[in-house]
Write a structure and sequence with these properties.
Strand content: 25-35%
Structural class: alpha/beta
Helix content: 25-40%
Number of helices: 5
Distance between the termini: 86 Å
Shape: elongated
Length: about 200
């Protein structure tokens, strides 16, 4: 009958539409799976931000008249200003890494801590700073930013679902030479000195 034909036609259209909707859903799911690796960890991680600051003397190298250390401090201020209300932890490098502030949310306190950062003229001991940072992050989620002059990516821990690592280093090749050992001895002719110099440049 005519009524049966109309009902049959309606169901056929419904089946076609349902098939189309399923195909579109499958396509969207496939796109999401393919694009997932390109979603940045910064977007995915909602925990604290940990900032590791290299305070070694090599950070005093200048570019356009401004020390790299000052450029990094400005970049850290911008990073913090873009994350209002988020807990911020700042760690300075050295033989014994130091926690400058820990999970601080007060913007004035954070900016004040950044402004007071100074070069310590000590070796950066970055491996220790990274280990220290991992112990602070523990099992929580954290977005970790390292500010230094150079760092081998192999020094970083393996990728994790809870920890994201970002290295902010200089792209310029600077000469980085330091005195490792110095010795002096008095002789009949005066004073003799021996200096051991290490070239840290890549």
């Amino acid at each position: 009958s005519m009524h049966e034909k109309k009902v049959s036609s309606y169901f056929k259209n419904l089946q076609k539409n349902a098939l189309f909707d399923l195909q579109m859903a499958a396509l969207l799911l496939l796109l999401f799976i393919l694009l997932a690796p390109f979603i940045t960890k910064e977007e995915a991680i909602r925990g604290q931000t940990i900032i590791v600051v290299d305070t070694s003397a090599s950070m005093l190298v200048e570019k356009d008249g401004t020390p790299l250390f000052d450029n990094h401090k400005e970049a850290i201020r911008k990073l913090v200003n873009n994350r209002p209300g988020q807990p911020i932890t700042i760690i300075s490098t050295g033989k014994e890494p130091m926690t400058v502030i820990r999970e601080e949310k007060n913007a004035e306190e954070i900016i004040s801590a950044i402004n007071q950062l100074k070069v310590s003229y000590e070796h950066e001991f970055m491996e220790r700073a990274i280990e220290f940072t991992q112990s602070i992050a523990a099992d929580s989620e954290a977005d970790i930013h390292i500010f230094t002059d150079s760092l081998n990516q192999q020094s970083l821990p393996e990728a994790s679902d809870t920890l994201a690592w970002t290295v902010n280093a200089s792209n310029d090749n600077y000469r980085n030479v330091s005195i490792d050992k110095f010795g002096a001895v008095a002789t009949q002719d005066g004073t003799e000195a021996i200096i051991k110099i290490i070239n840290h440049s890549g």
